[in-house]
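Cast an eye over this sequence plus tokens and walk me through the fold:

***
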Amino acid sequence: MATREAFLAKVREAQPPARPRPEVPLFASQGGDLRARFAAALQAMGGTCVDVLAAADVPALIRERFGEAASVASATSEVPGTREITAETEPASLQDVEVGVVRARFGVAETGSVWFSEREYGVNALGYIVQHLVVLLDPAQLLDGLQDVYRRDDFRDARFAALVTGPSATADIEGVLIRGAQGVRSLTVVWVAGS
């Protein structure tokens, strides 16, 4: 057995037994229109919501917002990209991509967050290495609050899950807000019904 496999086998043997997940209570809903609440929460975090008629309109939106020559890596077949993403795509190969496009599984109105797993990104680095992230979100896939995420089968079955709320930002250096310090500089959620 190779050194790597021996090491991984020892790690697996040392894992503690699985424990059941704690029960998360359901809190009372704030009520109101989920889409309006989502948009307000996302905007408070520096993100933007945009309406389009169909996914076919997204390339024009990208050209308008980011320029005709913007390189685009799309993890959804609904929007063509200038850079192909496959399971074999090396994450570092996306380092010069300006715009990433991905379809969120669902959104959370309480926080303005969109949810991704390895299934949505295709290449995990897509959500962090590009300059601008364009997210397709079906308004019918909005949840009220974070406690609702915990109850979903796709949340429990994912290898990893990321709730993304707005672009990357930091304000810890002399209180100056800097966007894109550790990730995307802009996050645009596009309301597009699922296919």
In short: Residues 3-13 form the longest helix (11 residues).
